[in-house]
Design brief:
The protein has 27 helices and 34 strands. It has 939 residues and is an alpha+beta fold. It has a six-stranded antiparallel beta barrel with strand order 9-10-15-14-13-16.
Length: 939
């Protein structure tokens, strides 16, 4: 008998990404629709280590991408999404139709495709795309359902494979030559390069000094205004913009007057009794247009300027506003407004600011980039009738309200009339007593019709004081040519040119957008990534690169130049757009990117570059010249300065070194600062004499981690080496002489009460004899006493107990130690247990590093990442540098996968899983067919 046909239920399953959208959408769909969420992506490329064993040694094994079969990706469902997938499959069995309602951009299209591949629906499939969660928006989406856009999916999948190839080929080079835990990325590396290049400009910058004169001038009626010296004897007075970054005057056609302190002050003195005359009055009309509605990047920039938010916070709040139906989709590079939105904006502007505040025709904006297509509209208030900020204030949080108000103002202002006014420029002259002719000028803009400024004015990035003053609105008195003026309070002012401003989050987003690098959805995660990796930190609002970022960018510039080239990265985006538009084949493009066509710079592929890197001098990569004889080196435990060993120095002389503070910005490390750091960390050394038992020289030193004593073990002489016994091969030939094992010198930290200058040979020998064995307990376990980072302590096996003072180390007896061990360890109630140790701020997470006592022993944590203290390492021996390194290694490894623990409870299912592996392997190869099937199902 044929299988019984499934009974119709009338249900339609609608799948969105976010649980927050479920309720918002469900209330507009009504009966018959079951809305559920995938909770983001359900599967992705696994780590190569997570691949099935049989695939690890195949062409899939290196990247989880099949290099031999058109770069087909091998996807795996996230372990924590398997239950979610099962629940969606169960709901799908009860549905007559499936509506894929993920976001209307490339990523949303890719999520929809993955759902289709995993759920394998046997019912009709519809693609439901909307840019606002409102009744009207959902209704329009239902009227315009479409098929899945496989070209868009191809573009997103190409992007994912590209990023995997880029990161997995280049990052290991950084691990070997710079430091573990670093990463390279298509957009993140270019963004880091921008920040590093700006810091290099600041480091190379040479300031130039210049002077000018300002004064107050008044008419006979007492109307006063301020003016600034603009020319002397017909030569324009040099200002900051006339100097280059090397402190030199730029070459210009017209003569410049570069005033120094003496000439400026003498001019002021000689103008003290001078009368001035107006020589020119010029009025020009002033018009200013409103800014376009927000795109993702302009929203991030404006929120940074006006609300002081990071890009990440801005996008998180925008996401909430979108999911709850307050604004349209927030990842877009389009400035287009729908007809309904234009009508709503013009209507509200008329109601609030009058009919004359709106132009006769609606304004139409065009995106700067022809590739703008992430979504179909700019970011605006949702709905065909905008809710005013005061109408939603009670239902939004403080931050949500602030962002909604910003978006509402910008949208309404974008449809308002131009601001109108005029700019007046006045010039006046006076002849000094030394016959120099001084010309002063003043400009002022007067707004006669505010237009869109009544609703909104766009913020500005940091700018020089001169530019800010010139852009300020000011009103000047009515003056006529030939009118006499009195000068008063003439003042000579000195200035110094300033280096280029560091990037802020707002300005780097603007720069990335201007260069057409990345897309709206990538800006916030890119900035977060370069900060999380320790490449960039924030000082106020400015982005400051770390020294490790200098090393990373130097390596990439010298050995992967094409892959951090701004134009090349922008062309990658253009290529991905062509794939999204169906103009280019995904597999051909990936073949060209990875395998290339030849060995020249233009056509070589990434694989050829990596395979032919040659030797990379890690020491040179991690070195930055400060002066001719001072070099900054990026070491395992941070940056430090090293002075070259002078010529003629004794053999074995160590170079002078000094640590560089973490909070010192690269452009602040001048030659003077370097000398100061050397002076403050000068390593002093005192010869204490010879150990009577060994004859070795004992010295006291000031080291990186404090004062200590150590013994000097001389290198073996040629005679001693020659006297070593000779070993022979079986054939009777002598083996090459072995290098003698280097003896580790005895070393001990000084007590807090000791100094390099005061410590004696006797005290040094006692310190180096530690740990001191006190004896054994009743079970025969040895008890020792020693000094550690956190003070003196007893040790019996793995049980350590603190003692009161360092002096007790040489006086405490076995009986006193046994008495201490007889007492239970007391740390108080669990809730109030203090940290076992504290190591200050982590340079990556910027959170405090502490050691806590956990269920399975002590562990290091910065509140985000946890790592167990290694076995054999006591708390007293643990250093800050070790703690930082352990946390960095743990971050680099990523979170621990715990799925293996569940396997025993599901043995039957686990047995079935391998039987499905062949199908999983075939899935990528059949992707094109799957897509065609999908297209048919959406008819």
């Amino acid at each position: 008998m044929p299988p019984k046909a499934k009974e119709k239920t009338g249900k339609k399953l609608v799948i969105v990404e976010s649980p927050a959208k479920v309720k918002s959408i469900a209330k507009y769909l009504g009966e018959g629709f079951d809305v559920d969420a995938s909770v983001g992506h359900i599967r992705d490329l696994p780590q190569p280590s997570e691949l099935p064993t049989e695939l690890k040694k195949t062409s899939v094994g290196k990247f989880a991408v099949d290099l031999d079969n058109d770069f087909e990706p091998y996807y795996m469902v996230y372990p924590d999404k398997k239950k979610r997938v099962s629940e969606l499959k169960a709901k799908l069995k009860e549905a007559d139709e499936l509506y894929l309602a993920t976001d209307a951009d490339r990523e949303g299209e890719a999520i929809a495709w993955h759902l289709l591949q995993v759920l394998k629906p046997k019912v009709p499939v519809r693609r439901l795309a909307f840019t606002e969660i409102t009744k009207e928006g959902i209704a329009r989406a239902l009227e315009n359902m479409r098929e899945l856009d496989t070209d868009l999916v191809d573009a997103q999948e190409t992007r994912r494979v590209l990023d995997r190839l880029y990161g997995y080929e280049i990052s290991p080079v950084l691990w070997r030559k710079v430091a573990r835990g670093l990463s390279a990325g298509r957009v993140q590396s270019v963004a880091t390069r921008l920040v590093v290049e700006r810091e290099r400009e600041r480091m190379a910058f040479i300031p130039a000094g210049y002077w000018d004169v300002k004064g107050n001038f008044a008419t006979t009626d007492g109307e006063a205004f301020a003016a600034k010296l603009s020319a002397v004897d017909g030569a324009r007075v040099a200002t900051g913009r006339d100097f280059d970054d090397r402190g030199q005057l730029k070459t210009t056609r017209n003569k410049l007057a570069h005033l120094d302190q003496e000439s400026a002050q003498s001019l002021v003195a000689n103008l003290s009794k001078t009368d001035f005359e107006v020589t020119s009055v010029e009025d020009k009309p002033y018009t200013r247009r409103p800014a376009a509605p927000f795109t993702t990047s302009t929203l991030q920039q404006e929120a940074s300027r006006k609300l002081r938010w990071s890009s990440k916070i801005t996008m998180q709040i925008a996401q909430r506003l979108y999911e709850n139906g307050y604004i349209t989709y927030m990842r877009t590079d389009s400035v287009f407004l729908s007809g309904e939105a234009v009508t709503a904006a013009r209507k509200q502007a008329t109601e609030l600011y009058g009919a004359d505040s709106v132009p006769a025709k609606p304004r139409v904006y065009k995106a700067k980039s022809d590739a703008a297509q992430e979504a179909h509209e700019a970011i605006r208030p949702a709905g065909d009738m905008f809710r005013r900020p005061k109408d939603v204030r009670s239902s939004l949080s403080k931050d949500e309200y602030a962002l909604y108000e910003l978006i509402w103002k910008r949208t309404v202002a974008s449809q308002m009339a131009d601001a109108k006014g005029f700019t007046a420029t006045i010039k006046l002259q006076g002849t000094a007593s030394d016959q120099r002719v001084a010309e002063f000028s003043a400009s002022g803009t007067v707004i006669t019709f505010r237009g869109f400024l009544s609703a909104y004015e766009e913020g500005k990035d940091e700018q020089p004081v001169e530019a800010a003053a010139e852009n300020a609105e000011a009103r000047l008195p009515q003056l006529a040519v030939g009118q006499q003026l009195a000068g008063d309070e003439l003042t000579a002012l000195g200035h110094e040119t300033t280096p280029p401003a560091r990037y802020t989050e707002a300005s780097i987003v603007a720069e990335l957008e201007k260069r057409e690098i990345g897309r709206p959805s990538t800006y916030a995660p890119t900035i977060s990534t370069i900060m999380d990796r320790g490449y960039v930190t924030k000082r106020g609002g400015a982005l400051v690169p770390s020294w490790i970022a200098f090393s990373v960018i130097r390596l990439l510039e010298e050995h992967f130049a094409k892959y951090v080239d701004y134009d090349f990265t922008a062309r990658l985006e253009d290529d991905l757009d062509e794939i999204a538009n169906g103009q280019r084949a995904r597999t051909d493009w990936l073949n060209l990117f990875y395998f290339g066509k030849g060995a020249d710079a233009e056509t070589e592929g990434l694989k050829h570059v990596v395979d032919n890197l040659g030797d990379i001098d890690a020491r040179a990569i991690n070195s930055i010249k400060v002066t001719d004889d001072i070099t900054l080196r990026v070491g395992k435990f941070g940056p430090y300065l090293e002075r070259a060993i002078p010529e003629g120095a004794e053999e074995g002389t160590e170079p002078q070194r000094a640590n560089v503070p973490e909070d010192l910005a690269p452009d602040e490390l001048t030659a003077e600062k370097a000398e100061e750091l050397f002076a403050n960390s000068q390593v002093s050394e005192k010869d204490l004499g010879n150990d009577p038992e060994t004859g070795r020289r004992i010295v006291a030193k000031d080291g990186r981690y404090g004062a200590y004593v150590t013994e000097i073990i001389p290198e073996p002489t040629a005679e001693e080496l020659a006297a070593l016994p000779v070993e022979y091969y079986k054939n009777g030939k002598p083996k090459p002489p072995k290098k003698p094992t280097k003896v580790k010198p005895r070393t001990a930290s000084l007590f807090k009460s000791m100094t390099v200058e005061s410590v004696t040979l006797e005290e040094a020998l006692k310190l180096m004899s530690l740990p001191r064995v006190l004896g054994a307990d009743a079970e025969g376990e040895e008890i020792t006493v020693q000094n550690g980072r956190f003070g003196p302590y007893l040790k019996k096996g793995s049980d350590s107990r603190s003692i009161e003072s360092e002096e007790q180390i040489f006086t405490i007896t076995l009986d006193e130690a046994l008495e201490i061990y007889a007492q239970p360890k007391q740390r108080g109630r669990r809730a109030s247990v203090p940290p076992l140790a504290e190591f200050g701020v982590d340079p990556t997470s910027e959170k405090n590093i502490v050691v806590k006592d956990g269920r399975f022993g002590p562990y290091i944590t910065d509140g985000v990442t946890n790592i167990t203290v290694p076995r054999g390492t006591s708390l007293e021996e643990l250093t800050r540098e070790q703690a930082i390194e352990l946390l960095a290694d743990k971050r680099a490894r990523g979170p621990v996968k715990r799925t293996a623990k569940k396997a025993p409870a599901k043995k039957p299912a686990a047995k079935k899983a391998p039987a499905k592996k062949p199908a999983a392997k075939k899935a990528p190869a059949k992707k094109a067919t799957a897509k065609k099937t999908t297209a048919k199902k959406t008819d």
